[in-house]
Amino acid sequence: MAATLLDGAVIAQRVYAQLKERIQRLHVRGVQPGLAVILIGENSASRIYLKNKAQACEVVGVHSEILRFPADCSEDEVVRRLQALNANPRLHGILVQLPLPAHLNSERILQGIAPAKDVDGFNWVNLGAMVAGHTLLAPCTPLGVMTILDYAQVPIEGRNAVVIGRSAIVGKPLALMLIARGATVSVCSSKTADLRQYTSMADILAVAVGRPGLVDGSMIKPGAVVIDVGINRLPDGKLVGDVDFASASQVASRITPVPGGVGRMTVAMLLENTVTAAERSVGIGANYPAQ
Ligand code: NAP
């Protein structure tokens, strides 16, 4: 039986419709959500990501601005600009487009974004909150995975979830979110001795590695929900995930495609985080503990 497709584009449209309503309510209070994107140097991938983000902002009604720095700018220059953006009440979200030029310390720059405006969710305050079981601003990609699971009404509590990949921006926060929802979670990495042993028991299998074909249908539990986070460009220019879609879709019950799956959700979640940050700025929703 062929799996049902979990279509990120369709789910993202539903997210945008909800965001438009939340933005309308903010307008009544005189607030337009604002997002600042810092771009240091330039590469073709960043240009595409920025175009997608700017288009999505326009569609839902988020004000966005791009601040460009030359590739040879200094860390201090960027941190000073971040301090000004942190203090600007018109901007509710700030993100720094990665990757950064090699001479810059990305950790110092990312930690320079105020936690309340950290719409990429990479600040240690936001990541730490997740360890304590709270979601303030969560990293966009794992948040997108959780949103896909919820839209598809995939039961999470009590299920075996396996996350392959343990990066700080995808695998680890995704594992924390699944734990918070009552899944029994295993996290695999390049050090895992027998990947198949884990994948074959997963009711929910999320793969975030960056290796085409790492998981094929023979490794998947029949009926599993498979979320392919990986994005890989093959030598022929084709974009594929980490899961061999042809064989996996014969075994899984539901599966995300690449492209058109999790990637579409990541931008949608960036806007959701920006709207959430704007709502918090006027006292709507859970807020950060007072310092
Ligand atoms: P990353 O920082 O390079 O982490 C990759 C993880 O995969 C590491 O934890 C690594 O283990 C693990 N790994 C490597 N080889 C493995 C193997 N043979 N078996 C099991 N685990 C293995 O990458 P990332 O930033 O998390 O991104 C992962 C993938 O998701 C990439 O393809 C990236 O392009 C994609 N991505 C997609 C989106 C989206 O919007 N769809 C967003 C972000 C990332 P170790 O820790 O042991 O090295």
Structure report:
This protein has about 290 residues and is of the alpha/beta class. It has 10 helices and 11 strands. α6 (about 140-150) crosses α10. It binds NADP nicotinamide-adenine-dinucleotide phosphate.
Q: Which tags fit this structure?
A:
291 residues; Rossmann fold; 2 domains; six-stranded parallel β-sheet; 11 strands; binds NADP nicotinamide-adenine-dinucleotide phosphate
Number of domains: 2
The name of the CATH superfamily of the largest domain reads NAD(P)-binding Rossmann-like Domain
CATH architecture classification of the largest domain? 3-Layer(aba) Sandwich
Largest sheet: 6 strands, parallel
How much helicity do the residues have? 25-40%
Strand segment tally: 11
Round the Cα radius of gyration to an integer and report it.
19 Å
Silhouette: globular
Summarize the structure.
40% of the residues lie in helices and 15% in strands. It has 291 residues and is of the alpha/beta class. The model has no long low-confidence stretch (mean pLDDT 95).
